[in-house]
Amino acid sequence: MAFIDSIKERAKQNKKTICLPETEDKRTLLAAAKVLEEGIADVILVGSEEKVADSAHWLNIDLSGATVVDPATSPKLDAYVELLYETRKAKGMTMEKAREMLLSDNLFFGVMMVKAGDADGMVAGACHSTANVLRPSLQILKTAPGTKLVSAFFIMAVPNCDAGENGTFIFADSGLNQDPNAEELAAIADSSAKSFQALVGAEARVAMLSHSTKGSAKHALVDKVVEATNIAKATYPNLKVDGELQLDAALVDTVAASKAPDSEVAGKANVLIFPNLDAGNIGYKLVQRLAKAEAYGPILQGIAKPVNDLSRGCSWEDIVGVVAITAVQAQLV
Fold first, then answer.
1. 41: left (phi over 0), alpha (psi -120 to 50) or beta
2. Is the pLDDT of residue 80 over 70?
3. Rounded Cα gap, residues 34 and 30, in angstroms
4. Are both 155 and 136 inside the same structural domain?
5. Which has the closest alpha carbon to 11: 45, 27, 29, 34?
6. pTM for the whole structure
7. Which end of the chain is more exposed for a tag (fewer CB within 10 A), N or C?
8. What CATH number should be reported for the domain holding residue 223?
9. Which whole-number Å values give the CA distances from 19 to 55, 122, 200, 239, 288, in the listed order?
10. Nearest 10 degrees: Cα torsion 222, 130, 320, 31
């Protein structure tokens, strides 16, 4: 069974409610209709009921099973205003400002629904930047207990691929942290391994990637990855991790045997930790576009409740996949 099909089946077994606040984007509405049709999750659409109905008619889709919530007419608006004020008053929030934010920004309203327990998770980013999706999530939901760093990953499902876990990988951080230091890279490795095990259901084998393998090059960028690997091994002793590894040494048995013969990860890595956001973002898009891989994300890890981002280049099918992943994450909270 393909990765995303297994995720959808898990989502159906304990159905969660996912909020989709970008109702002005037709991809979101197409995805919502498919999620409802397949029974993956219950859906809340944030926006004007009249506009959603008009769009559904124009797109010839059935959204009758969705709950449409207009912030301006929601009976819970006052309660959300009070909750946002209480959550952020130490940062200068006022009741007036809270009301204005909730009425003017559907992302803030959607996150408040998750905070209040009226939705189990939120998916956005089809027409908003990562920063805009992340800001209300961190301000309102905050980080999960014990989390050192919020980070982002893509789940990559590569067709006709024997590497990774039957062609499934996590690429991190490919969407959020621009230039993590060694300690942050180690934390990303640990979080990503946990996410891989939770979502893919297999043991994570983590490769800390570099342009060098085991000292083949000398540079400060290599030193950072070596230090991150050492920190990860010391801080997370149950983590199966190795580095620094070039990509071919991480994935190809014959190359691993030559370049890193004593490694328990080299040649069979399924979680790839990139040294910075440039490498991670370029890497996932290369695999997505040239290898025709399915790319789901950026999936956020480390937030107290599931909120996930989308690439603005996503398709409606991508949104369906991320909704299913978010629903499974919500089952695990």
1. beta
2. yes
3. 6
4. no
5. 34
6. 0.88
7. N
8. 3.40.50.10750
9. 18, 5, 24, 34, 26
10. -150
